[in-house]
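In line with agreed milestones, the collection of sequences with tokenised folds has grown. One record among many is set out beneath this paragraph:
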Amino acid sequence: MMTNSKFTGFIGTYTKGESKGIYSFSLDTDEAKITDIKVAAQAENPTYLTISNDNRFLYSVAKEGETGGVAAFSINESGELTAINRQMLDGSSPCHVSIDSKNNYLFSANYHKGEVVSHLISPENGSLQPAASVIKHEGRGPDSRQEKPHTHYAGLTPDEKFLAAVDLGIDALITYAVNDDGSLKKVKLLPLKAGSGPRHLTFHPNGKFAYLMTEFSSEVIVLNYHSENGHFTEKQYISTLPADFSENNQGSAIHISSDGRFIYAGNRGHNSIALFSVNQESGELSFIEHTSTEGDWPRDFALDPSEKFIVASNQESGNLVLFSRDTGTGKLTLILSDIMVPYPVCVKFLHVLS
């Protein structure tokens, strides 16, 4: 039984305007409010974050002059971050970062360079070792924004046997095997609908289904995941937008409830979160409703550890939005929308430790 009433979260940002780097906040679930927003670590464009399962370390995208890479921080009890080290490469910084459950490996996806990079993590202090693999994708897509590969996501499959990389520029989902030394070996490439611009991926807790959000076509692609060989097969495409919406929209984040019953997908432009129910037998989705994010350009959102709330981040209007969540129906109800954080991108919560 979860008894916590306060959860600590972190926000990755673009350091434009007044933004200083990584912010922390506290969600009080009894009071249904967000408090104590402060700078946890000053950094340049730490847009995406991930947190180790034991809550000891936070890893972020990093930028420094003409180099880009990843940074490691230790997390203290008050939620402040202390820099450990960083690993940088020439060129643009990545857009996504993830780790394995045992904190042995870190993976990053580089949108501008079309690359997947892997690192070993030192077990004694959480520091990052130099890149073990740098894999560059090849190809292009039919959209003018698909002039070259644009890797947008790299995360492990639920069984942690394979790394799944999503490339928006070449409309592909690519699977890699992860060797003990952290190096990557390509296993399979699944071509997706041309011009769809695949962006982010999440898995059903049963490990059999995956859900891929597209940026250009604003759809969720339902996939079967075949754990025996790391392959995926397409099952369903379903729009995240109303049929009569014709303005600019770019799909953003996708998340699933831990019971596997509901999928949430972000729309930048329509400025909404689309809610779907999941058929537990087939994995296929049925649309339920849209909820306004009460701001501009919802880049990400996160279910809190109790899953009774969702915190969304509107990048361009610079506000966090707190929704209560009905765990029975999946539906969201607005609580607060005036929580100001400059250029928020990514929202992550500390894990509840058993």
